């Protein structure tokens, strides 16, 4: 005798018109929840560490998926950690969904911003909170991305000795170790990525204060190791979230080589202007610098040396 309870969900649904298969219970097809259990079990197996999905799937889909998978695999726990994300909204509107026809295509979004900037926006939002998609949100994310990009460039300038600075090795390494511990705690505490960003900002603020300080005695402590350690740590954490500051594509490398040539030519002309004290030449160099800035290329002059970033 088969006992059916009110709260039981369907593992097999009767079907005549839709795609169906013969079974001991008649023609039908698997229930919705079976699909995910079957795919995940086939690809991963009888134990899953982290399972993610939208907040709307928490019940009934994920609970039913867990129940039937535990029964199939004869285990009391199939998934160790569930992560349910909030909705993506448009400003002053409901959540984005295909049914409401208010979605934004990725190719359209990339006309307004970059993939890294959007990833930054996601990191700045708590994963289980709703996120508003707007120009203001994208602008904020781009600004934050720019702060980190400038920091990486400043570290490069220091290591290339374009920038002279006083570095307190012990203090900086202590700040780095504390940041690493704080970030680990933030991720363990409900995957708090906004708090991770706060700790990273504090670390780069501490580092920047040293990178822009010169010893009053005229002796600079050129400690490249601690600055490199901080730079690598920041880049590693952000790359874990998919935000990268080093591009390996051939087109990016070609672009970099072209800007290198332009920067070296401008630098040579600028040195000539400095040596001859020719204000007209220096004014033209400033014009090139300002024009490039409008296109996202930042030229930094360090005495008779120049560096660039984008």
Structure explained in plain terms:
Keywords: ATP-binding, Ligase, Metal-binding, Nucleotide-binding, Zinc. It comes from Acanthoscelides obtectus. This protein is mainly alpha-helical. It has three domains: 1-85, no CATH class; 87-246, Isoleucyl-tRNA Synthetase, Domain 1, CATH 1.10.730.10; 247-310. 53% of the residues lie in helices and 12% in strands. The protein has ten helices and eight strands. The protein has helices at residues 32-43, 58-73, 106-109, 115-123, 135-159, 169-188, 193-211, 224-240, 250-276, 279-294; strands spanning 12-14, 28-30, 48-54, 79-85, 88-90, 131-133, 298-302, 305-309. Strands 1-2 form a two-stranded antiparallel ribbon. A two-stranded parallel ribbon has the order 3-4. α2 (58-73) links the parallel β3 (48-54) and β4. α5 (135-159) packs parallel to α7. The longest helix has 27 residues, at 250-276. The radius of gyration is 28 Å and the shape is elongated. The termini are far apart. The mean pLDDT is 87.
Compile the SSE list and pairings:
Layout: E1 12-14, E2 28-30, H1 32-43, E3 48-54, H2 58-73, E4 79-85, E5 88-90, H3 106-109, H4 115-123, E6 131-133, H5 135-159, H6 169-188, H7 193-211, H8 224-240, H9 250-276, H10 279-294, E7 298-302, E8 305-309
Short overview:
InterPro entries: Cys-tRNA/MSH_ligase (IPR024909), Rossmann-like_a/b/a_fold (IPR014729), tRNA-synt_1_cat_dom (IPR032678), tRNAsynth_Ia_anticodon-bd (IPR009080). By secondary structure, the protein is mainly alpha-helical.
């Amino acid at each position: 005798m088969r006992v059916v309870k009110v709260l039981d969900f369907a593992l097999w649904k009767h079907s005549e018109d839709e795609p169906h298969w013969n079974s001991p219970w008649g023609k039908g097809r698997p229930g919705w929840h079976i699909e995910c259990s079957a795919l995940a079990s086939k690809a991963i197996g009888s134990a899953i560490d982290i399972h993610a999905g939208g907040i709307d799937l928490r019940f009934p889909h994920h609970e039913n998926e867990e129940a039937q998978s535990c029964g199939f695999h004869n285990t009391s726990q199939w998934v160790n950690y569930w992560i349910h994300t909030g909705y993506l909204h448009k400003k002053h509107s409901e959540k984005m969904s295909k049914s409401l026809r208010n979605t934004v295509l990725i190719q359209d979004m990339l006309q307004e911003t970059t993939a890294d900037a959007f990833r930054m926006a996601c990191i700045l939002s708590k994963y289980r909170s709703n996120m508003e998609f707007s120009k203001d949100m994208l602008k904020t994310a781009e600004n934050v991305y720019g702060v980190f990009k400038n920091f990486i460039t400043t570290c490069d300038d220091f290591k290339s000795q374009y920038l002279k600075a006083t570095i307190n090795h012990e203090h900086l390494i202590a700040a780095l170790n504390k940041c690493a511990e704080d970030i680990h705690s933030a991720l363990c505490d409900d995957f708090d990525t906004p708090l991770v960003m706060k700790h990273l900002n504090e670390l780069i603020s501490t580092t920047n204060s040293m990178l822009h300080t010169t010893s009053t005695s005229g002796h600079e402590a050129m400690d490249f190791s601690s600055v490199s350690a901080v730079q690598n740590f920041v880049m590693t954490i952000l790359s874990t979230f998919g935000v990268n500051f080093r591009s390996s594509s051939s087109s990016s490398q070609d672009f970099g080589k072209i800007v290198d040539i332009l920067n070296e030519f401008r630098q040579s002309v600028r040195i000539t202007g400095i040596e001859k004290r020719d204000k007209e030449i220096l004014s033209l160099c400033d014009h090139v610098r300002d024009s490039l800035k409008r296109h996202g290329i930042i030229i930094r002059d360090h005495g008779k040396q120049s560096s660039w970033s984008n």
